[in-house]
Write a structure and sequence with these properties.
This is DUF2500 domain-containing protein. Pfam families: DUF2500. Keywords: Membrane, Transmembrane, Transmembrane helix. InterPro entries: DUF2500. There is one protein chain. The protein is α+β, with helices and mostly antiparallel strands and 121 residues long. It contains three helices and five strands; from the N terminus they run αβαββαββ. A five-stranded antiparallel β-sheet has the order 3-2-1-4-5. A hairpin with a 6-residue loop joins β2 and β3.
Length: 121
Amino acid sequence: MSKPPLFFIIAIGLIVVFASFRFVQQRREKAENDSAPQQQKSVVVCNKREKPLNPRRSRQQQVTPAGTAMRYEVSFKPQTGGAEMRFRLDEQQYNALTVGDRGVLRYQGSRFVDFTPEAAR
């Protein structure tokens, strides 16, 4: 029985290293968000973006089109000035917002908590 080629072993090793690095990075971000205090800011919804998630390869898409899984992102601009903040939301939260809405954004680290719109005048 012959040994596997060196290239194959190196490729598998790199995949394991990169996957481990990403796993540790996600756990660290979750821990930082959990320990961060909740903050509030008066903001304006300045951009909404929905993007289809595409876990398939191009050949698989030719046979059956991509599914309905989507990623929803919303950008908020502080009313007092400052850098734009972008958060991922679930579909229900995303659909409740409209570009130009003003209100109070609550967030914890890099995690979106909720958005309370100002009362209509």
